[in-house]
Amino acid sequence: MKPAPFEYYAPKTVEEALQNLTDLGYSGKVLAGGQSLIPAMNFRMARPSALVDLNTVAELAYIRPTADGGIAIGTMTRDSVVEYDPIVKQRMPIVAETIGYIAHAQIRARGTFGGAIAHADPAAQLPALSLALNAKLLVKRKGGERWVTAEEFIVGPFMTVLEPEDLLVEVVLPPLAPRTAGSYKQVSRQRGGYAQAATISMVGLDDRDRVKDVRCVLFSVGETPILSKYAAKVLVGNEPTEAAIADVAAYVAKNECDPGSDLHGTAEYRRQLVQVLVRRSLTEAVLRAKK
Amino acid sequence: MTQLVKINVTVNGVSYEREVEPRLLLSDFIRHDLKLTGTHVGCEHGLCGACTILFDGESVRSCIMFAVMADRHTIETVESLGTPDHLHPLQEAFMEKHALQCGFCTPGFLMTLVDYLGDNKNPTDEEIREAIDGNFCRCTGYENIVEAVRLAAKKMAAHS
Amino acid sequence: MAERVFHKSILRNEDPQILAGKAQYLDDIEIPGMLYAAFKRSDYAHARLKSIDVSEAKALPGVIGVYTAEDFGDLVKPGPLQVPPPTAIKGATYASRTIMPIVKDKVRYSGEPVAVVIAESRYIAEDACDFIYPEFEPLDAVIDLEKALQPGAPLVHEDLPSNEAAHVIQERGNYPEAAANADIVIKKKIYMDRVAAVALENRGIVVNWDDKAQMMTIWCGTQSPITLRNATATRMGLFENQVRVITPFTGGGFGPKINTSMPDDVLLTELAVRLNRPIKWYEDRRENFLATTSERDQVHYAEIALTKEGKILGFKDVFYHNSGAYDSYMMTVPLNTQTHTVSNYNIPSFYTEIFMVFTNEMVVTPVRGAGRPQGVFVMERMIDAAARELKMDVAEIRRINLIQPDAYPVSTGIIGQDFVEGVLDSGDYPTALAKVMEMIDYKKFREEIQPKARAEGRHLGIGICTFTEGTGVGPYEGAKITVGGNGKVSVATGVATQGQAHYTSFAQIAAEQLGVEVKDVKVITGDTGAFAWGAGTFASRGATVAGTAIHLAAVKVKNKALKLASQILETPESELELVGGFVQVADLPDKKISLGDLASKANPMRGTFPPGAEPGLEAVAYYGPPYGATGAGCMAMILDVDAETMKPKIERLVMVHDCGIPINPMVVEGQVHGGVQMGIGNAFFEKVFYDETGQLLTASFMDYLFPQATDMPPKMELGHTEIPSPLNPLGIKGVGEAGAIPTPAVFTQALEDALFDTGVEIMESNLSPSKVYTYVQKAKGA
Q1: In this structure, which CATH number among 3.40.50.800, 3.30.43.10, 3.40.50.920, 3.40.1280.10 belongs to the domain A7-56?
Q2: What pTM did the predictor assign?
C-alpha cells in the first residue's frame, strides 16, 4: 500500500499556489491535510500526477472573528485548531460539537477545515456543517476570486464547483441570530467512524419561542448534504411542539433523503435513523435555543 | 527522473537532512531512512494508530503523511520517551498494569497518550477510552491500557 | 527456601525492550543488498488464467524480476498438508486439495497470486504490479455453502465430483430414540459468519541465502517455525540444519500465522537462492484481508430434544463448514465445533455431521476460537430456544443440565482435532455458573433492575452462557535448559511467541525449579537454531505442553546440579537446595556453590569424564499429553439497547474461568481480555463479506470494523476457579481462546432479552444494528 509516484510542488504563498494550479490544470491536485487523499493514494485508488502542497502556505491557516459576529476560517486551519478555539466555541458551539465527530484526534490534528469541504465527501461533517451554517466560501484563481454559498458549492458526491485552477481559500461562517442554537446527532457503527446517518439542526426562536429560522441538514444519506425544505416550511412561524417535530422527522426520513444500502445498513434502517436523529437534533436545538 | 526533495527534519531532538522521493510515506522515512523502528506500521490507511508519532507536539498518523510534509518540522517517536533501563512514567505504568502483550500497537498508544495526558491531567475512564479510541489493540481488550493510563496520570502528576 | 515464582503475577521480562521501541519485529530487519517483494493478485475469485503479460513490469527501473508460474517449473504444485486427515474417525471421507504457491491455470480465490515482483523497494515492486496484465476467463463463483453441494454447481476443483471437501459423522447414544422419547423437539437453522484474525502486525518473511556457507536464514513471525524449516528444507533438498528459522518479536498471531508452505514462503525462498540476494516481504493490510486465512463461516441445522422439565435428552447438528478454496489445514476447525457443541452438558445422545465445502473464498484455518465459538453458539442458542418454549429461566435450564464436578474424567465419545476420543479431564462447571450469577447479581437483575428498567421503557437484557475450551493438545513439545557460566539460565523451546508472555511465564517455570530470579532466565522461543523440535503455537497449548516440557527439563537440570554440588560440597543431595543462584546446604547457607561455577565445572576441559555422564548443566525434555486439558467457564453480560437505533451498550460483562493452575494470573487475565475483544467483534462488529462473485468487500478497516476501546464494556469483571488438570505435573490448562468462545452466544442472548417486547429471535452472529432492526421489523410483522 504505497502511493504511485507524483510530482511535488510546495508553494509558499497563495499566489504561487494559484500559479501552480494554473500551470498544472487537470494533472494537478491540491494536498491539504491529506487525511482522506493519502489513504486513497496508498490504496492507489487516487493517483494524481502532481500535488500542490498547501501545508507550506502559512497565510492560509487562521481564524478571524468578523466584526458582525461571524467567523472567517482560512482553508488550511486544522480541524483541531478550530475545535479548541475559544471564540469559535463562544460564537458557534455547534462547530466544536460537530468537529468532535470527525474521526479521531490524530486525524483532526492534520485534517483541515477547507480541505474537508472541498473534498465533498457525502459522509463528511464539515460540508454538512457549512450548509447548516449557511457558510460563504471564497474561491480564488489566478487573477480573480468569487464568493460561493455552501449550498451552491457542492454539486455531487466528491464534486464541487471548483475548477482545476481554483482554490478554496476561506470559509466565512455568518453570525448566528440571537436565540439560535444547534444540535449534532449521528449514528455510526463505531465512535469516530463514518456516519450511517447524521443531522445538524440549527434552530432560531423568536421571543415567544416560535421558530424564526431553522436549518436542518442531513448527511451520509444521499449524494450530498441535504438541507430540509420541509422543516423550514412547517416549523417557521410556529411553535416547535413535539408533534410538529415528529411530523418533520417522519416527512424528512420518507421524502427528503435517499440513503442506499451498504455492508453496514439497509436503506430502510438508515431512513429509520434519519427519523430518529432529526427528531432528537431538532428537539435538542430547540431546548438549547431557549436557554 | 525521479524527483528528489531535500528536507530538514528534527526527530527526537536530532536534526536530519535527507533527500526523499515525494511519495515516501513519513512512516517509512522514520523507520527505514532514519532506522527508528519503534514506530510501527499496521494499516497504512490511518485507522489502526500503530504509526502514531508527535508532529510539532501533536499526535498524528505518520502513515498518511508524506516525508516531504515534515520539512522544517519537529517529530517525536517512541524512542524519545524512555530507555529499557529508565522508562518514562507512562511506559512504567504500561508495564506495571500489563497493558501490552505483543507490543506492536504499544508505541502508537504511548505517543497518543503523551500528547493526551499533557493536556488532560486527570481523565475519567470514559475520557481515557475516547482518547485511545483511535488506536487498535488486538491483545489486551484495552482493559489494562485504561488501567495503565489512570496510573500514568497519577505518576505524571507526581513527576511534574 | 527459595521464593516461589510459579503461580504468581510477575511483571514481564520482555516489556522494557518493547516499551522503549527497541524490540525487533519482522519489518525492522534490514540486510545490505535486500530486495523487496510484492504479489500481483487476482481480482477474480474464480477464473481461468489465459495469459499474463509481464514485459512492461520487467522493464521498470528498479525491478529485478517478475515471475509467473512458468518461471517456477516443478515448484508449482499443491503444497503439503499442514494437518493430517481425520482417518481416526470411522467412515470419514475427505479430499485434500492443498494451497498452490501461484496460479498456473485457474484462480480459486480473489487475491490468489498470479505473479511476484522482486524490486529494489516495495514502492517500485507495487508500481510494477500495476503494469502486469493478466487475461482471465471468469467462471461462476462458488460462494453459498449449501448451493455448492447441489448437483450442477460450478466446481472449485474440477477433478473432484463435487465441492464436498470432507464428510464426517460422529455420534453417541441414539438421537432418533431420544427425540422419540422427548416431550419437546426444537429445530433451528443457525449461522456464524467469517471473521479475520487481524493481528496488528501483518504477516511477512525475510529470507537470506548465504551461498558460501550454504545456509538459509528465514525470519518470519510464524506460529510454527519448525514446520516452516522442515517444509523449506524438504522442498529445497537441503538438510534441516541448513535452514534456520528465527521468529523475531511478533505482533500477534491468533491462528493464521500457523500456516506454512504459503505462496510467500515457497516462492521467496526459491527466489532468494536464485538471485542470491536477501528478500523481504511485509504484507500490507489489504493483502492481509485478501490473502491471509480467516475463519468461522458455518451453517447449522440443529435439533434439541428435551423433557418438559428441561432435561436435555439429545442433540442433533448437521452443519456445513466453509473450507475456502483449499483445505491444507484439513478438519481442525469443524472437528473443534463437533467437540465443543455439547461438551459441558450431560447429553446422552448426540449426533453431529459435517459437510466441509470448497468455495471460491480465502482458505479457512483456525482463528482464535477455532471452531469452538460456533459449537458453543449453536448449543447455547438452542438452549435459549428451549428455555423460551418451556418458559424456563435461562440460567436454570443450564444449571440442571451441566456435568457435575464428581464425574471426571468424562469420555465424550467424539473424536477431536488431536484424533483421540475427547475426555474432559477435570472441571467444575456448576460452580462457575453459580459464581457468575452471584457476581452479576442475576437474581436482583431479574427481580428488581430489569423490571424497573422495562417500566421506564429501557431495553435492558441479560445473557448467561457456559462453555468449554479444549486446550493443550498433542502431539508434543520440548525444551532445552542450560545454565551458563554467568549463572543465568537459558530456556529454548520450539513454540513461537506472538505476545503471550512466554519470556516471562516460561521463565517462571524454570526459575521455580532452579532457584534463580525470573529476570535471570532468558527464554528463546521460535529459533530453530536454538531448539529444533516441536509442533508450534496453536490450540492454547503453549503453556500446557511446552510449559510442562520446560518444567521437566528444569527438574533434570536441578537434579544434575544437585548431584554435582553434592560431590563438590561433600554433602548428600537431600540436604541441598537451590536458592538465589546457588546450590547451598540447607542448614549451612554459607556452604554453597554458584550455579555459574557448577556449570563451568560440569564442562571439564582437561582430565577425565565419567562414562555415561553428560556435560554441562543442561538438559532436554519432551512432553506429550495423552489428550488435551479442558478449560471451561461461564460468562454473563448486560446490554442496554437503544430500541430506536438498535445500538447496544455493554453495561456489564462478567466471566468466571478455569484454566487449572495459572502460571501467572496477570497474564491469564490479559489473555481473557483479548479474547473477549475478539468475541465482541465476532458478535457485533466484525464480518468478512464476500459478494456472490467472490469479491472481498471488506479489505480495509473502513469496511472491516475492529472493536475499539469505546466498544468494550466499562470493565471486564473476571473470576477464576482453579481446578488443576491431572494430566500434567503443574496442573495447567490453556486459556488463549477462552474469551472469544462464549461471547457471541452471550451477546446475542442478551440482545434478545433486551428486545423481549418485540419477540425477536436471532439465530446468527456477526450482527449489526441494521440487521437487528431488520429482525425486529420481521418479528413485529412490519
Answers
A1: 3.30.43.10
A2: 0.97
Give the model confidence (pLDDT) of C289-322 as tens digits: 999 999 999 999 999 999 999 999 999 999 999 9
Confidence tier at C2 by pLDDT (50, 70, 90): low
Alpha carbon dihedral A104, A287, A65, A120, in 10-degree steps, equals 50
Q: Reply yes or no on whether the pLDDT at C1 is more than 70.
A: no
Determine contact, residues A75/A63, Cβ cutoff 8 Å.
no
Contact A268 C698 (CB under 8 A): no
Taking 60 as the threshold, does the pLDDT of residue A7 lie above it?
yes
Identify the DSSP state of A55: G
Q: A180-290 sits in which CATH class?
A: alpha beta
- Strand order through the sheet with C629-642: C459-471, C629-642, C647-658, C716-720
Q: Hey, which residues 21-40 in chain B have their CB within 8 Å of chain C? A: 21, 23-24, 31-32, 35-40
Chain B residues closer than 8 Å to A80 by CB? 58
- In chain A, which residue ranges form alpha helices assigned H by DSSP? 14-24, 37-42, 79-83, 86-91, 93-99, 105-108, 113-119, 125-132, 150-153, 229-235, 242-251, 267-290
Confidence class for position C58, pLDDT limits 50, 70, 90: very high
| CA atoms of C636 and C211, how far apart (whole Å) | 59
The Cα C349–Cα C342 span in angstroms is 10
- Residue C782: its pLDDT value, please? 65
The interface pTM score, or ipTM, of the predicted complex is: 0.98
pLDDT at C489: 98
Cell numbers given for C179:
427425540
Give the pLDDT confidence score for residue C91 in this predicted structure. 95
DSSP C258: G
Q: Return the number of other C-beta atoms located less than 10 Å from residue C214's C-beta.
A: 10
The minimal CB distance from A4 to the residues C127, C707, C769 is found for C127
**Domains observed in chain C:** 15-21+474-623 (3.30.365.10), 201-291 (3.30.365.10), 298-473+626-779 (3.30.365.10)
Evaluate if residue C377 carries a pLDDT over 90.
yes
In this complex, the residue of B50, B91, B139 whose CB is nearest that of residue C674 is: B139
Which position has the grid cell 438498535?
C646
Nearest to B40 among C25, C667, C710 (CB): C25
Closest to C511 in 3D by CA, of C536, C486, C481 = C481
Residue with cell 540436604: C575
Chain A to chain B, count of Cβ pairs less than 8 Å apart? 86
Placement of cell 540447607 in the chain: C586
Residue A177 CB neighbour total at 10 angstroms? 14
Contacts of A189 in chain C (CB under 8 A): 685, 705, 768-769
Of residues C144 and C608, more confidence is placed in C144
Distance CA A48, CA A41 (A): 8
The three-state secondary structure class of C605 is coil
Shortest Cα–Cα distance, B134 to chain A (Å): 6
For chain A positions 161-200, those within 8 Å of chain B (CB to CB) are: 191-192
Mean pLDDT of B38-56: 98
Alpha helix (H) ranges present in B6-105?
A: 26-28, 89-96
CATH of domain B5-80: 3.10.20.30
Closest CA to C5 of C518, C420, C522, C425: C518
pLDDT for the residue C343 = 87
Quick: pLDDT tens for C478-519.
999 999 999 999 999 999 999 999 999 999 999 999 999 999
**Which chains are within 8 Å of A by 3+ CB pairs?**
B, C
- C444-482 pLDDT, tens digit per residue, is 999 999 999 999 999 999 999 999 999 989 899 999 999
